[in-house]
Write a structure and sequence with these properties.
alpha/beta, 7-stranded mixed beta sheet, about 25% strand, about 20% helix
């Protein structure tokens, strides 16, 4: 697995201040995706145990309310067990919430993807549809969101 970036203090990808991991690799290629450069699976840096611990440590700040996983496509990262290991370690080390954005709908996910979801608190599912883009996405804590379903897991 590779990653494109980590953000320690991110207010754009979930409620509160979050630490976000943008993974590399996405097969969906949604029209007008804001992270097109993250589509190639070989983009960015190797995500190994050291990178995982760095990501988790960034979120241990008392100012951070939780973690967000997006990309790229998090649920395309099944070439190894690093995503599963990451969500398990976040819960073990911090107990903080995990939000995930995925182009897969909950109903489309396979058993391995649903194993990862056992550790995810909020799933925002479904591909980005440019024609349904809603710039008030975070108004009223996501209640106006129209392009995807939100699952509190």
């Amino acid at each position: 697995m590779k990653y494109a970036q980590m953000r320690q203090f991110d207010v754009a990808n979930g409620v509160g201040i979050r630490t976000s991991l943008f993974v590399s690799g996405c097969h969906f290629h949604c029209k007008n995706c804001f992270n097109e450069e993250y589509w190639p699976f070989d983009y960015g840096q190797e995500y190994d145990d050291a990178a995982m611990q760095k990501f988790i440590d960034l979120g241990k700040s008392p100012n951070v309310t939780g973690y967000s996983l997006l990309g790229g496509e998090p649920m395309d990262q099944l070439m190894d067990d690093m995503l599963l290991k990451t969500v398990q370690e976040i819960k073990k080390q911090t107990g903080k919430t995990i939000w995930m954005w995925s182009g897969f709908t909950f109903e489309e996910m396979n058993a391995r993807q649903k194993e990862i979801l056992q550790y995810v608190d909020v799933l925002v599912d479904g591909q980005f549809v440019d024609e349904k883009k809603n710039l008030t996405l975070f108004d009223k804590f996501f209640l106006k969101k129209v392009k995807n379903k939100i699952y509190i897991l």
